[in-house]
Structures are given as C-alpha cells and as structure tokens.
Amino acid sequence: MAIKTLVSEQFLPIPLAQAWDFFSSPRNLNEITPDEMVFHILSDIPDKMYPGLLIIYRLAPMLKIPMTWVTEITHIEAGRYFIDEQRQGPYALWHHEHHFKEVDGGVQMTDILHYDIGLSVLGSLAGALFVDRKVRGIFTFREQKLRTLFPGAAPAA
User: Fold this and answer.
1) Which strands, in side-by-side order, build the sheet including 106-116?
2) Residue 45 lies in a domain
3) Which H or E run contains 74?
4) CATH number for the domain including 68?
5) Apex 109 CA angle, 4 and 58, nearest 5
C-alpha cells in the first residue's frame, strides 16, 4: 500500500455551533462538492449524522464514469470531530478526519485524509497522473466554496 496523507486547515469566522451544524449534516455534502463530480446521495439520510451511519452516493469522480461510493461515519465527538471511512468505492483506503476547534473569532477546521488508490504499480501511476491532483482539487473547491458561504473565511493552510 502507498498511503498518502493530505492535511488542510481553514479558518471560518463563525461560531463553533454553526460550523458543527453545517458539517455534521450530510445534506450539505452536495454544496461543497465540485459540480463536475455529478454527486448525488442515494440513501435516506438523517438531518444529523451518527456513528454507524452509512451514506450511499453516486458520483463521477474521473472521466465522467459513474460509480457508487459508500462511506460510514465511524466516530463522532459532537463539536470536536467526526471520521468517515469508505466501505465501497474507488480507493483501497479512505479515512477522512474532520476536526473543529474554537479559536478567537471563529473556528479552525482541520481535515486529515489518509487514502490509497491501491493496485500497486498501476495505482501509483494513476495517483501520480491524476488521482492526487483530483483529491487536492476537491479540497481547493471546498475551501473556495466555504469562503463564499462564510465570508471572511481564511484560505486553507
């Protein structure tokens, strides 16, 4: 396995409760996902996530080829963090931690993503050619979208 790690930090000029309400609602995922990924949630989802929640998506992350992706919310500590992990999808490993910390004037949000495309040499080549760039692009899109949704948000570190 060739596990890669992406860390992204962004300041949001909103109260912690507002940040948590926004990010802990699976219904907001579509709003912070690039349009070209053709993202649709297929499963019935609650207003707020809980440990064990499975979310089934249909999306087209590469070359407009549609696929099903299933993630599970594995851990939650309300107001502090939650973790989602892929159960079915394009990655050999997808472990995404979302951390929230109240700071002066708002919230420091930190994402830590561990992922592996798998497939040994072929996966490494695909990662180098386009997967790594696509993953970074998703986070860049989200950062820009959050600056629009929450004016005054600082760029990711």
Assistant:
1) 4-12, 106-116, 93-103, 81-88, 67-77, 54-59, 40-41
2) yes
3) strand 67-77
4) 3.30.530.20
5) 60
Residue 23 lies in a domain: yes
Single pTM value for the model: 0.88
Does an H or E element contain 115, and which?
A: strand 106-116
Helices (H), the chain: 16-23, 120-126, 132-149
pLDDT tens, residue by residue, 60-90: 876 777 889 999 999 999 999 999 999 998 8
Contact between 153 and 10 under an 8 Å Cβ cutoff? The reply is yes
Residue ranges making up the domain that contains 14: 4-149
For the chain, the residue count is: 157
Integer Cα distance of 145 and 142 in angstroms: 5
